[in-house]
Amino acid sequence: xxxxAAFFVTLLVRMGPSYMTYFQVRSLMDRVIEKPELRGAGTRxxxxxxxxxxxxxxxxxxxxxxxxxxxxxxxxxxxxxYQAQEHLGFNVxxxxxxxHRVPFPPRP
Length: 108
Prior knowledge:
This is DUF4845 domain-containing protein. By secondary structure, the chain is an alpha+beta fold. Helices cover about 45% and strands about 30% of the residues. It has one domain.
């Protein structure tokens, strides 16, 4: 029973920071997408704003290359897609895949 508890504590300690970073970046995406100066901005300007906000928030494991601007029909999305790998012990690693998309507000 103690070994099982230790296993789950190890999972929490190893995987927790990656999930905290993911939720921090999700919040960052919501803030960036709502900036009035980015309404109608091009891909380069939006990704530069994301990069600046990542730097300000101290996010080091996710960078600008993990983001894309995608168009689906009449909607445009800011898309985050990245993987994080954490070592658990011996020759065992865990691979986490994170994806999130935020729609751009419609143009006035």
